[in-house]
Structures are given as structure tokens and as C-alpha cells.
């Protein structure tokens, strides 16, 4: 399963910039739909996204792809 780390990235950026960053702000800055960000933030929802969205998130958070998402083996 792919797990997105959106909440962690928002928390880290908020801490670095010493201000609250909202999903709406991330959406406006990246062009990634707010509902898509919410789905990515919820580990219980399987969400598919585009490479363009991942690219935009990497630019906004100044990070690598593996910082935005990770593979987590499913328990059997």
C-alpha cells in the first residue's frame, strides 16, 4: 500500500516557518485539489494521483518523492 505523508510534511513546514499551514494553502500553492489532499492525508482511503500532483507537492515542500509517499507492506 502507498501511504502519503502529507500531514507530516505540513507539520514540518509549519514548524519551520513558525506559522499554521492549511490544506487550502497547500492546494492553492500546488494546484492539487483540496479534496485530493484530504484523501491523501487519510491512510484509510486508497487514493490514486498523478505524477504532476506529486511533482507540485515536491516543489512546494522542497522535498523528494520518497518524502511525499512511501510503500508500506500490507499485513496478511
UniProtKB/TrEMBL annotation:
Every HTH cro/C1-type domain range: 13-68
MF terms (GO), sorted A to Z: DNA binding
Coiled coil: none
Short name of one Pfam family: HTH_26
Record InterPro entries: Cro/C1-type_HTH, Lambda_DNA-bd_dom_sf
Protein name (record): HTH cro/C1-type domain-containing protein
